[in-house]
Each structure stands twice: as structure tokens, then as C-alpha cells.
Amino acid sequence: MFLTRFPSKILRWCSILQLFSMFASFLATASCEQQQSSKAAMATDPISLFRFPNRYKAKSPAVLIACLMFSACDALPRDPSGTAERVEHRKVFAVGAVDPSARTAPEVLRLIGEIEQRTHAHARWEPGSGEALLQRLDDGTLDLAVGNFRQSSPWESDIAFAPPLSSSGSKDAPMEMKAAMRNGENRWIMTVERASRAVSAKARAQ
Amino acid sequence: MSGTSLPEELHDVMGKAMRLEYWNIFWTLTIIVTMGLVLGQSETMKTAWIEDALGLVPPIMFLIAAYLERHASRSKRFPFGFERVSGLGFFVAAVALTAVGALLLYNAIMALGSAEHATVGSIVILGQDIWLGWLMIAAQVYSLIPPLFIGRKELPLAEALNDKLLHTDALMNKANWLTGAAGLAGIVGLGLGWWWADSVAAAIISVDVITDGFKALRSSTAELVDGAPRALSGTDLSEDAQKAAIT
User: Fold this and answer.
1) N or C terminus of chain B with fewer C-beta within 10 Å?
2) Which of the pair, A103 or B80, is modelled with greater confidence?
3) What does the alpha-carbon distance between residue B233 and residue B129 come to, in Å, rounded to a whole number?
4) Quick one: which H or E segment has residue A145?
């Protein structure tokens, strides 16, 4: 167990150190795209990443940096309160509908389904509505709130909003159907943002 | 004797210094734009961005002072020329640095005190969802590079011209890697889930801004009120002033 976990721990800490290097930060964007293929390689042969073919030996520092970056892509960001890890571990996340219509809105149902698929967890709908739910979000007792919010909501600095799934209302008072998360839970926020973009053209266009 | 306050033999050096400062302004603007595009909610990024924007003040003040030194002649109204314009520019830069540094420190402490968790979400680039923190890190790294080279080129020119404003700018540019490292640590810490890292890094950067500003304020005030000339790199008396004091 230790032997299998040890290399990944070294990689993770090395990846944190390499974040301070210039090359890593510039190349990180490109390396994320290759992350999936690296993971697939590791699944079949866990130490395949440590075996360098001869032709790569002269370039081993570059290959090492690339390997570190692959793991760095996955290592950051993490949540201060561990929301994403908890959802992954307990296989459940708490959702609240800020207004009753949100619970049955098709775009919301698509979003919840997408998050469930991505996290392998299921949504547990919580009772309550309005500001009470947003306060629970801020307190950390709710993972996700969905509903119609004003385009420039007064809650903007207290909670994090995902890209809007759809919009309604007049030009003077535009409303947006979107998800809200607790501020600073950056990995969880990214998951919801990605899911929003996956199910809504409007979110993708934002 | 020159009609302006700048000796003839220093005109070429001054020309070089002015060209360098134009480049300095250009590169600083690219940094400001790059950092501004990826600011997000991070206190570190905001503080570093404001610090970079403040970096424009010394080269602009230097260029104004240099223009006056080269082109403004002595007159009845200004019988001593415009030799003190540089000192005035130095003073303005020092006040701006100190005041903004204090404001940034206040913001960082308030964010730390109220346990603000900065949200850094994702952005879509070429169809890929990328964590904005990666771009912040790239922007921070980019912001380190131009000042390093400009600072190195500024130092000999500042010494040749004995120009305190240029010298302070050179030292600030050379020391910029420290604030850059603090900024990088802040963003990486934020990525690791250490919510306080963002505010702590912002506080460290703002303390550095205040220190720079305070040092510059002491020197410039002393020279503006006709104190003995200070050394180019600090608040101690210059060598000439020390010799004069002994005799």
C-alpha cells in the first residue's frame, strides 16, 4: 500500500515545488489536455510514467517536468473545506432550490444530472428557499443552490456563481437561472462550472 | 556651461536612460494588461496588479523631470533651473507608494480577519476548461521577467546620472522577484486550499510596497528641505556630504 501510494505523494509534492518554476506555469495549460491519456496509461501500468524510452533519456528533465505537470493539473485546486472530496467520498451532495420553479426547470435537472455523472454522487434536495438557503451555502451546510438570480446579485461577493444556464426577465431587470456555491471551494466550483458549460450553450458562450 | 540644468557630457546618458524608461513603461503596461485579464477575486493578484500599476509612477516622473532638465532653461522666475524637479518627482512617487501600500495592507488584514475565501474558478480556452489559477501563475511569472532586465540596465545609468529617482526604480525592479515569489506562493497556496495564503501573500507584498515608499519618502523629504545629500542607495549621507561634514 505504502509503495503504491508513495510515488504519487512524491509526484504531488514535486508538482507543488515545480509550480514555482517558470516553465511549468507556461506549459501547464497544454499539459492538461494530455492528462487523460496519462491516466489511462497509469491504469494499465502504474509505473509506466517512470520508464523513459532511450530516446527520451537525453531529454529526461523535460520529461520529468512534463510528468510533474500532469499530476499538478490534477492536484490543484483543492477546497479549503474539502467539499469536492466529501462529495466524492460520501457520494451525495446537498442541493437547494432558491425558488420553487427551479426544482423542476429542465436546465436545472440537466445540470444536476451532469454533476451526478461527473462526481458519481447523487443529489439530495434540501427544504427551504430564498436567502435562508444562500446563508446555508455561506455557512457550508449546503453544497449547491439553484434558481433565478438577478444578473448583478447582491450576493455576488458572498457566494460563487456558475455561468448562467438560461436568462429571462426584462432588459432593466435581467434574471439568470444559475447555480451558486460556497465561496473559495474552488475544485467544487470548477466541477459545477464545467457541468454548467456541458449542459448549456449560454453557459458555454459566457 | 549649459543653459539647462543638465551638464553637456551627460546628455547621451540621459538620452539612453529616457529610452530605457519608455521601454520600461511599455513592458509595465503589458504586465498590467496581462495581470488585469486574470485578476479574479484573489487579493494577491489585486495587490500585485496595483503594485505593477504603481511601477509606472517612477518612470513617468523620471521622464517629466528629464524633459525639464534637458529643455527648460534657467530664467528669472527659475534662476536655479529645474534641478529639483527630479527630487519632487521622487517625493510624489514616494507618497504614492506609501499611501497605496498602507491601503493594500489594510485590505489584506481585513480579508484575513474576516476569513474571506477567495474564489478562483475556471475559464474556457480553446475548448478546454482551465483553472484560472494556472493563468494567474503564468501572469505572475511573466510579470517577473521584464523588471529584472530593466532593473539591471537602469542601475549603471542611474549611477552615471547620480539620479535617485532612476536608482530607486532600478532597485525596485531588481527586487521585484521577491514580490513575484510571494504572489506565486499566494496563488499556489490558494490552489492547495489554504484560504489564508492569498491574504498573507497580499500583506507581504503590501509591506514591501510600504517599505519602498517609506525609504523613498525619508530620502526625498531630506533633500527637498535642503538636508545634506543622501547616498544613492539609501538614507545615509552621500560620500561627498560626509566629506563636507568632516571639513
Assistant:
1) C
2) A103
3) 47
4) strand A144-150
Is the pLDDT at A13 greater than 70? The verdict is no
Integer Cα distance of B198 and B52 in angstroms: 17
Half-sphere exposure of A86 (CA within 13 A, CB side): 13
CA separation for the pair B222, B162 (Å, rounded): 16
Q: What is the DSSP letter of B237?
A: B
Q: How far apart are CA B237 and CA B160, in angstroms?
A: 18
- Measured CA to CA, the distance from residue B84 to residue B80 in angstroms comes to 9
State yes or no: pLDDT of A38 exceeds 70.
no
Q: ipTM for the complex?
A: 0.75
Binned at pLDDT 50, 70 and 90, residue A112 comes out as very high
Q: Any idea what the Cα angle at residue A196 is, between residues A191 and A200, rounded to 5°? A: 155
Within 86-115 of A, beta carbons closer than 8 Å to B belong to: none
A172 touches chain B (CB under 8 A): no
Selected for mutation to probe chain B from A19, A34, A71 (highest B CB count within 10 Å) is A19
Question: Which of B121, B124, B193 is closest, CB to CB, to A189?
Answer: B121
Kindly state whether A37 is in contact with chain B, defined as any CB-CB distance less than 8 angstroms.
no
pTM: 0.74
Query: Is the peptide bond preceding residue B79 cis, with omega within 30 degrees of 0?
Result: no
